[in-house]
Amino acid sequence: MTFVHLANASVLTLQVIDEPALLGLAQLHQLRGRVGRGELQGYAWLLYEGSRNTVNERLRILEQYSGLGAGFEVAQKDLELRGMGSVLGVEQSGKATTMEPADFARMLAEEISLAKQPELRVLPPLPEVAVTEIFLPVDSHIPRDYVTDDHLRLEVYFQLANADNEDDLQELTERIGKLWGTPMPLKMVQFINLIEMKIYGKSLGISKIVADKPHILMDWDVAARTLQFLTSFLVDERDRDRFSIDSENGQITLRGMGLLAGDAQVAKLRSWLQIFDRCNREMREAESRTASSPFPGAGGQSS
User: E strands within the chain?
Assistant: First the structure.
């Protein structure tokens, strides 16, 4: 077998693009990568009407991000310009200025859940607990220099601690930001993150989360099959491998998580619990649909 190396294959020295408005920003970036390479000088001519604002914006972005590793930045800008749609499809709609990892994880869980309806109908939802205690090495409180009035600060503590669900917490967080300003101090953000984790933990039936180096322990009486299903939504296989179940004692060990910095522990756990909570709500809805069905055994229940 003989291999022939063509050093200049797929390299253009002159490229003419008529009506670049018909192409997306990412497509223009890919075409730009074909013009010139190494010692070869290349030129790209884009023919368009000067009044097209979208083209001007795309050209400005391409000019701004032209160095090594620019692909990610261009992709992010393309998302802002064209909007984001389904994670697992090609449809695009709406607009976005930022996408946090937790937001992507939530969207991914929603998309994948549609493909796993049989499991959702078979597995029973997790029961709630009265309260979830969290003990992680992270500095989380409302700084005095952020909410200076002592009585108001205690009131904010009380309202945050009594937020019943994710929507209430989000609304309260927005109100706090409007009253005392954004961006919030990191300690304040972490306090809100812990409250959010407690909301998820309560819904999932987790009574305690505690850092115990080198691991993190969770008092969580969850069936092995249910845990396997929930962790299947985690994108990174290394994250899935961290979960070790002790069914007899109703405890989950997150191997090696205690070695991470406190902020990293909160970030990962918050993202995971958000995904698990979304799945658990899907299981509750599936159980409700099955219970209201006029046909016994409908919905994939095992006999």
Answer: 14-18, 43-47, 84-85, 92-93, 133-135, 206-212, 215-220, 243-246, 251-254
Complete DSSP assignment for 251-279: EEEETTGGGS-HHHHHHHHHHHHHHHHHH
Mean pLDDT by 10 residues, the chain (303 residues): 49 72 75 66 75 71 69 65 50 51 63 56 84 96 94 94 93 94 95 97 97 97 93 91 94 97 96 94 78 50 39
Query: Which tokens is 131 given?
Result: 């309260």
Q: Please give the DSSP secondary-structure letter assigned to residue 22.
A: G
Strands 43-47 and 14-18: parallel
Judge whether 156 lies within some domain: yes
Q: pTM for the whole thing?
A: 0.60
122 and 69 inside one domain:
no
Regarding whether 169 and 43 lie in a shared domain, the answer is: no
Q: How far is the CA of 44 from the CAs of 20, 50, 93, 246, in angstroms?
A: 12, 17, 30, 62
Q: What angle do CA 243, 234, 303 make, to 5 degrees?
A: 80
On whether both 129 and 23 belong to a single domain, the answer is no
Which of 91, 43, 274, 75 has its CA nearest to residue 166? 274
